[in-house]
Specification:
alpha+beta, 60s Ribosomal Protein L30, Chain: A, four-stranded mixed sheet, 4 strands, globular
Length: 129
C-alpha cells in the first residue's frame, strides 16, 4: 500500500479533477474503515485544511466480485464511512464532503485476477467545486 501525500493529492486534483486512493481499507463486504487507513485519512485531512474552499465527492469503487446492486450499495456505504471518519476523527467539515458509490463500473485494472481486483477496490476524491 502506498500513501499519497496531501501535496500529491492536490496536484492530481488540480490536473485531472480527481485522485485515486488505495490506502483506505475495508474488510471484505464490510463498511468499517480499517485502522490501517489512518495515514491516508490524515493526508486527506491535510489536503482539506490546506485548501479551505475545496469540496470533494468521496467515490467508492469495488471489484467485480458479487452482485452489481450489492457492490453499488457497498461502495456508497464505504464512501459514507470515509466521510464520517474524516469528520469525526480528523476535523474535516462534513459539509465539504459528499459520498457516491459506483461499485464495479469504472475499473482501473482487469478483474480477472486478485492483483487487478485489488487495484479496483479504492476510494477516489473528485473535486466538487
Amino acid at each position: 500500500m502506498t500513501t499519497v501525500d496531501a501535496e500529491a493529492m492536490a496536484k492530481s486534483i488540480g490536473a485531472t479533477g480527481k485522485v485515486a486512493l488505495s490506502g483506505i481499507l475495508f474488510d471484505t463486504a464490510k463498511t468499517d474503515v480499517k485502522p490501517d487507513s489512518a495515514p491516508t485519512l490524515q493526508e486527506i485531512a491535510g489536503l482539506m485544511k490546506a485548501n479551505p474552499k475545496l469540496a470533494v465527492i468521496a467515490v467508492g469503487h469495488t471489484d467485480n466480485q458479487g452482485a452489481y446492486e450489492h457492490n453499488v450499495d457497498l461502495s456508497r456505504r464505504r464512501a459514507d464511512a470515509v466521510i464520517k471518519t474524516l469528520a469525526a476523527s480528523y476535523g474535516v467539515d462534513a459539509k465539504r464532503l459528499k459520498a457516491a458509490g459506483i461499485g464495479m463500473v469504472a475499473p482501473n485494472a482487469s478483474n480477472d485476477d486478485e492483483a487487478g481486483r485489488a487495484k479496483n477496490r479504492r476510494v477516489e476524491l473528485v473535486k466538487l467545486n
